[in-house]
Amino acid sequence: MNWEQRIAIDPNVMGGKLVIKGTRVPLQVLVKALALRSTIAEVCDGY
Questions:
Q1: ∠ CA(19), CA(17), CA(33), 5° rounding?
Q2: What is the pLDDT of residues 5-46, one digit of tens each?
Q3: Which terminus of the chain faces fewer neighbouring Cβ atoms within 10 Å, N or C?
Q4: Global pTM?
Q5: How many domains does the chain have?
Q6: Which structural domain, as residue segments, surrounds residue 25?
Q7: How far is it, in rounded angstroms, from Cα 36 to Cα 13?
């Protein structure tokens, strides 16, 4: 799978930060949470 199918960059969304496509969830939030050993469910609940 190509990352471009899941990640979007749009200057009108979150100031042009990388986001999960179709959401306003910045990729940095997801990566940081996973680095801290959070589950995807915990990230979704917290965001």
A1: 55
A2: 999 999 999 999 999 999 888 999 889 998 999 988 888 887
A3: N
A4: 0.72
A5: 1
A6: 3-46
A7: 25
